[in-house]
């Protein structure tokens, strides 16, 4: 099926990174998409950057139209993402795709994520290795049966089994996941069902992916990762430190996440285990998974 996709990008003071991202979108093997870019109150207007303007002009001429929006005040990550969602839902696009402003997508990234959607999942994510750091590849059979596993307890806290979406893989597998990372392609029905980004999070945006993932799971949607879909994470400082009190803002968001999961646990019980049962997943114990991660990660 030929899906029309709305790619949503929030950016602030990262014109170079945005240019690299857009160039990687130009190179995609799958071409049926438009791009919505929301400038979250950058110090200099994006239109003032010549190289970025050149890339945008080329994409528009090639039919992958880009539309820019701008916040008059710095709203931060979660509120900006929600503003883009509200705009995207007014289009006739079949699928939405959220993309970070400091990633470079491999040319087949969208194509790989579409395989996940067509296999019956509602949201598809890839892996996001950190560019510029030593890279490791692992075989996806060692990550099964779940990606980015979450374990809840009665206090609503959660434990990750490690970051499977931060590694490259030797082979291609579609593996269910408890929470996605970074760049994800998904059905518009997820937001049409009433799911929104959490407005309680600070401008820093830390933990917005986990809260959104948990909302998606509790509403009955399914998520999976294609282990060969790679989005390189630049982790660039060139946009400048967003907030002088970043650690404090991160701590606040950790508390928001804890309160959020605790409330869901009280209302619905262990929704992660219910999700596992729905997908017929029986994750091994945390000790076994950590043993595999420690002993079976293979250097390039």
Give a structural overview:
There is one protein chain. The radius of gyration is 19 Å and the shape is globular. The model is unreliable at 294-300 (pLDDT under 50). The chain is an alpha/beta fold and 300 residues long. It has a single domain (5-299), classed as Spore Coat Polysaccharide Biosynthesis Protein SpsA, Chain A. The protein has helices at 15-26, 50-62, 77-88, 109-118, 189-192, 208-218, 246-268, 271-278, 286-296; strands at 5-11, 33-39, 66-70, 95-99, 103-105, 123-127, 136-138, 150-152, 158-160, 168-169, 174-176, 184-187, 223-233, 298-299. Strands 1, 2, 3, 4, 5, 6, 11, 12 and 13 form a nine-stranded mixed beta sheet that branches. The chain has a three-stranded mixed beta sheet with strand order 10-7-14, with no helix packed on it. The protein is built from nine helices and 14 strands.
